[in-house]
Write a structure and sequence with these properties.
Blueprint lengths: L9 E4 L6 E4 L30 H4 L9 E4 L5 E7 L15 E3 L2 E5 L3 E7 L11 H18 L7 E8 L11 E7 L4 H17 L3 H12 L3 E4 L3 E4 L10 E5 L11 H21 L5 E6 L14 E6 L6 H6 L8 H8 L6
Antiparallel strand pairs: 1-2, 1-6, 3-4, 4-7, 5-6, 7-9, 8-9, 8-13, 10-11, 11-12, 12-14, 13-14
Helix pairs in contact: 2-5
């Protein structure tokens, strides 16, 4: 007997590339699924109608929060809770790995959580440093709670800002997804860094950082612990990466002092995007070593920010080759022009 297709997402493995694709029918119920060309500013823009705002959120019947932070007045500042429309589900612990014809399938077992900040209008560029530190505290706390769960091999932490970046609600929120696979993008990055280390006995990211800092042309900002830059081989126009200067493989081991410096770097990077690029939609995400029990000391964790400046068309879709309309050197010059620091 087949399982209810609504109960689980499903992972199907491509026979040619070997990569997994997730199918989640529950995602069709999201607020934006049937609305074409929806601007985020029109979707729950009024706090009175926003399901994530404190007054409305507290009235809703929610699944149990996995984490809540409070201010000195007893009001919540951050809540983390299960996504109502999860890509991966924890309803069962069995992957139910099986074959269908020549294809390999397994259930999409994992965890999908939403991190919501209390303020309806304030994203990373608008927050004070302690508020951003609190977000990174929540990232780390949830990462540590999920990493040893059964079948979890990788934890993706990301933020979608704006409708074209995939955000269905304007209220500031982030997502944390614990999954039973290592995603293809991270897998390629891991393989590349491992090959470089085997050939040169050095971290490829450290080598790139040393050269970039010495060159300085693509550096947007740096402090004692972190550097913000437009990578030499940017995949989209105005791509930004935030690296720890010290070789660090595992984000979950970040210290309190490092979180303060990271918060400064993240706020600066996103303020430069906001004020120099007219507040575009963007995706921001973490790349870190997996939590699958293997050792990845050759890897170097970092955040990537992809402003929605590129549209994938025929060439990109048919070849996988990204085409940027601006050199990263010029992008860095534009981004360094101004920001409200």
């Amino acid at each position: 007997m087949k399982k209810d297709s609504k109960a689980f997402s499903e992972l199907r493995r491509d026979l040619v590339s070997g990569t997994w694709v997730a199918f989640s029918t529950k995602r069709r119920a999201r607020p934006d699924f049937h609305k074409e060309n929806l601007r985020v500013s029109d979707n729950y823009d009024d706090p009175k109608n926003c399901p994530f705002c404190r007054e409305n959120f507290d009235k809703q019947k929610q699944e149990k929060d996995t984490l809540i932070y409070f201010d000195k007045n007893g009001d919540w500042t951050i809540r983390v809770f299960p996504n109502k429309f999860p890509i991966f589900s924890s309803k069962t612990s069995s992957l139910n790995r099986r074959d269908e014809g020549p294809f390999e399938i397994m259930d999409g077992i994992g965890y999908h959580e939403v991190l919501v900040a209390a303020d309806h209008r304030k994203n990373f560029p608008d927050l004070e440093i302690p508020q951003i530190v609190e977000v990174f505290d929540a990232y780390q706390e949830r990462y540590l709670a999920l990493m040893n769960k059964r079948n979890v091999k990788y934890i993706s932490i990301f933020k979608n800002y704006g409708s074209t970046a995939g955000a269905s609600i304007i209220h500031p929120h982030n997502q944390i997804v614990a999954m039973p696979i290592i995603d293809p993008d991270v897998a390629r990055s891991l393989d590349g860094s491992a090959r470089y280390f085997q050939a040169h006995k050095e971290c490829v990211h450290c080598v790139m950082l040393e050269w970039e800092i010495e060159n300085g042309e693509r550096i947007i900002f740096e402090n004692e612990d972190f550097v913000v830059l437009c990578p030499f081989v940017s995949r989209v126009s105005f791509e930004i990466r935030i690296y720890p200067k010290k070789h660090l493989s595992y984000f979950e081991r970040i210290t309190k002092d490092q979180k303060i410096k990271l918060s400064e770097a993240m706020r600066t990077a996103l303020r430069k995007v906001k004020y120099n690029l007219d507040d575009p939609d963007y995706n921001m995400f973490l790349h870190t070593a997996p939590c699958d029990g293997q050792t990845y000391d050759h890897y170097h964790w970092h955040f990537e920010i992809f402003p929605k400046t590129n549209i994938w068309a025929g060439l990109e879709l048919s070849t996988g080759i990204e085409v940027c309309s601006i050199l990263p050197e010029e992008a860095a010059k534009i981004l360094k022009k101004k920001s409200k620091i």
